Amino acid sequence: MNAPEAKPDLDSLPIKAEAKQLNFYYGAKQALKQIDLPIYDNKVTALIGPSGCGKSTFLRCFNRMHDLYPGNRYEGEIRLYPDDVNLLASAVDPIEVRMRLSMVFQKPNPFPKSIFENVAYGLRVRGLKNRTELEDRVEQALRDAALFGEVQDRLQDLASNLSGGQQQRLCIARALASEPELLLFDEPTSALDPIATGSIEELIHALRDKVTILIVTHNMQQAARVSDFTAYMYLGELIEFGWTDDVFFRPKQKQTEDYITGRFG
Amino acid sequence: MPKQRSTRDLSLIRRLIRSGKRNETLFIATGLAALALAVLTFLALFIDMLIDGSPRLTAEFFSNYASRKAEKAGILAAWVGTFTVMLVTAAVAVPLGVMSGIYLEEYAPKNRFTDLIEININNLAGVPSIVYGLLALGMFVHTFGMGASVATAGLTLALLILPVVIVATRESIRAIPGSIREAAYALGATRWQTVQHHVLPYSMPGILTGVIIGLSRAIGETAPIVIIGAVTFIAFLPGSPVQSAPPFISFDWLSAPFTAMPIQIFNWTSRPDAAFQANASAAALVLVAMTVVMNGLAIWLRYRLRRNIKW
Ligand SMILES: Nc1ncnc2c1ncn2[C@@H]1O[C@H](COP(=O)(O)OP(=O)(O)OP(=O)(O)O)[C@@H](O)[C@H]1O
Ligand SMILES: [Mg+2]
Fold this sequence. Notes:
- The complex is a heterodimer.
- Chain A has helices spanning 55-62, 94-100, 115-125, 131-144, 148-151, 164-177, 194-207, 220-226, 244-249, 254-260; strands spanning 15-26, 29-40, 44-48, 72-80, 85-86, 101-104, 182-186, 212-216, 229-234, 237-243.
- By secondary structure, chain A is an alpha/beta fold.
- In chain A, a hairpin with a 2-residue loop joins strand 9 and strand 10.
């Protein structure tokens, strides 16, 4: 729990992004209902809730992943600050949105290319060609993802030769390289063993100073360990949101309490 | 601790296992017999061909034109014809097939129209090759006036293997996990960048395999090129594609009449003289060797390229 003893007033904290009256539909099926949620700047916000409650669906609204598949529909807004643009507006190109945000997926999904090329890809897509600059930024991203030491003398090796935990940190480096304004994690450790999980959690904790993070997790302890804020979702609705220690120790809703204490039925 | 007696009836379980094993032995024996039948038949044919044909496999056999005298006859025109026709076939079928496959998988909306196209393509792969010959005779030979040329034959066989290439392309694209595609999009790649940097390279092994399987089907096709009017006796080669005088490149070879290996073989087998039968066997050996080399190439390429692609 990272919240300091005296928690600052929420109104005084800068907001990086904000969902407003967000509805989402897979075809006719409504998966998100009237979600209002602020994402505070340079903080880690954890999304928890039972399987199928819409955590991934919500996360994937931010970088418009749903645009890739037919029949999906958004209603409402996700505002990104400071320029106060609605990421979901049809006038906003989803590619522009994805250039500003990065995502790390549940299962490590490195490209079947070299370690270097994996991290460099986002930069190449952004038109960076200069070799030395690419090398510098790849190295910096690998350092930020706490992976550089392990791979520095085999950057040209295939990414698939790395261990699962290393692959996931590679994916984090790949996401960091383009200096995203908001970093989205969808259960980044659910495919990893406890040790790899621990190193990713440390990493997320450390990254908080650099970037705003929104993380979906199934693991209650993980949410408690890494996040400043926690949002509890149930059946597509946001039930409770607040400082992580408040949500965990002083939940306002009975439902949240039941879920957190494992009495969820 | 006192030993506990098993409450299970172990003798029944053992009896069941024994009878299961008996069935397994029976199946292995039947399977081996079936396999032996297939392999032995092929071996017998191949050895027969080898005995008849191998004495004819001399250097002259490859550098002589067909002749009225069996011992002077060779397959020069036939193998050059087959080679040039295959070149045209590949040059046409590969880009068309790969682009169609990519379009259908990555771009086309999924609706009734694309479903219809999909069904059609799958059916086209099963259309008898002679039908393609008839189509080509009407379209390329008569309507477009291209005659019985290398280009006509190449285009006909390209049509024939187009569905194979499209289906292979689509299948290898579909084998790419969605998570890899999403990784590219999430980094801000456009659809075309995703295709160009990821989809196409990762599906290349499968596409190449499909292409070569298609070509090795086309190389032995006889019916469609008989229909479009391949000549059976020819004593000159298509013009050279490179020339010493400007513009240095010539496409005259495309409009040249041609013959091909299967036609040559067919022609020789239909002669009564036993010496020509030996020629036919020798030419068939060469054709089989061409196919084996192509399939070997496919396997090697697939192995080489797939080594780097692990999900
Ligand atoms: N492509 C889709 N089409 C239709 N319904 C979908 C689709 N994807 C998800 N859903 C439904 O939307 C709801 C929310 O799914 P989502 O994947 O967001 O849940 P989740 O909270 O991430 O669950 P988990 O913790 O298991 O990952 C579920 O009821 C799910 O069945
Ligand atoms: Mg999920």
